[in-house]
Amino acid sequence: MSNLLFLPLIIPLATAVACLLAWQHRSLQRVISLIGAVFLLLAAAVLLVTVQQEGVLSVQAGGWSAPFGITLVADLFSALMVCVAGGMGLVVAIYALADTEAEYERLGYHPLMQVLMLGVCGSFLTGDLFNLYVWFETMLIASFVLLALGGKRAQMEGAIKYVVLNLIASALFLAAVGILYGVAGTLNMADLARMLRESESSGPIPVIAILFFIAFGIKAAVFPLFFWLPASYHTAPMAVTTIFSALLTKVGVYALIRIFTLIFFVELAAWQPYILAIAGLTMVIGVLGAVAQDEMRRLLSFHIVSQIGYLIMGLGLLTPLALGGAIFFMVHVIAAKSALFLATGMVLRLTGTTELKKLGGLYRHQPLLAGLFLVAALALAGIPPLSGFWAKLALVWSGLESGNHYLIVAVALLVSLLTLFSMTKIWAAAFWKEAVVKGATDTLPPLSRRVFWKMAVPTALLTATTVLIGLWPEPLYALCMDAARQLLLPNAYIFAVLGVQP
Amino acid sequence: MSSIILSTTIRLLLPLLLLFSVFLLLRGHNEPGGGFVGGLVAAAAISLYALAEGVEAAHRILIVNPRQLIAGGLLTALGSGIIPLFLGRPFQSGLWLPHSLPVLGHVGTPLLFDLGVYLLVAGMALLIVLSLMEEE
Lengths: 502, 136
Fold this sequence. Notes:
By secondary structure, chain A is an all-alpha fold. Chain A has helices at about 5-20, 25-55, 75-100, 100-105, 110-125, 130-150, 155-185, 190-195, 205-220, 230, 240-260, 265-270, 270-290, 295-315, 320-350, 360-365, 365-380, 385-400, 405-430, 450-470, 475-490, 490-500; strands at about 55-60, 70-75.
């Protein structure tokens, strides 16, 4: 039964191999990667249901027992994230059927995307810090190549910034892992939790915790280490940008939440004000950057940074409600932001530009697309009854409940307002205002019907998800709260891995 | 470009180097060696051949495309991990044949995994080297 945990790793790897074997046949590769994405989502869904019914699952690769072997663990948080990743993989695989250029596919887009999914699922499921490093590298190497594929000049510029910053983060991460191993003598996360979670914060442990915070902070794009993200994300093709924005920074946030609630809990509690300050600054700087932008992809990239601030806020408040809210927010923002990117991809495909100054009047031409974009934009801003409202409500509520965090609550609400402003600006400029050249959009060459639906269906699926979560939040909300309780009381996690009560 | 000394030597060296790479692969379980080093030695042998006789000739003696070597290697390694699943053991458990074979010694799924690494590393190194040589 616990071999189920291996499936989210075996499926993308097997799909990547099958795509490599079918190197010469592009249409075969498309079919293979679509089938792989469907199976990954199914396996992830089964995993989530199993974890819900049976509690935390753990398995040792090769059967070598816990602190020495290669451990995989799935609690509710990681199973939920694998499920979301599987869903995004499928949605983007459908979108890529219409959006990916032949040149990209010839250079190996499909196998690379599968390796990226392998790294993402591995990062979510691993129970060992060194393995986490290896999965991060798997994911990053695939993302480096995806970003630079094709080798256009603007792409190389973005890719170099991305590579350099992420390599620095990896070096810090590896250094932290090495020092921690020297201090604790183990890298198994459950074993580390047993040793360090309750003990006095002393000696090199806070330094190690800071190194981990910086390393994951760069990958998650928190203030002041976010600048690589808006500089590089907008250069890649839309399907790639979407999967990056949906999963890569979220893996960084996942690692932050996992490591700090499980291992460095004492430090986390002690640094609460600083973490909240970082969260607030990330939100504000991100949204201010977005307000100043006039190009849709850059604008949305800054919003990624701003939304990361809310997730860090959940970590900083450190109540079950706040952590549950952060997990809920993560699911919401992945759906809403990806819908916005996919819709932007359709705008690019229709008009050939994403410059707000050159766009306009698309509403008359494409009412469906305008509607999808508007719903996703309002969800991101947190307008009830869409998904963003409940996510922000949980965070704000827990901030008010704890009594002395009024400042961060005020900042969060102000940033919501600015997000709404920025979203209405982008929607009005691209869809609502008069076309810059009168009648220009009437003469646009229409997309062929097949291309249009291959792009519109994934966008609509994501938008429908945000509406559905918004109208019927209870099941997901209950799941997130259970996940948060597991994070704050990791006895079940430790027992599942080591077989002993802490 | 073509040097008679190099092309005469490589004819003698190529089988020796390939044999040595297999030797490294087999002894890797408990002693220095293994699939990674073996694969690099094999790739070095073929690259040397490509230097002496040209890229076309190297592709001819390889028979398969380096990319297929990579895919085959990944498939072999993945297969070695999946076999134990059918016997109800965790992924990547080491399973061994009950008797040791002549020459090969004790054979099991770890050797299969190493063979996968060998093919993958050889394929990857050759893909890089041969693509760079073709570009000139």
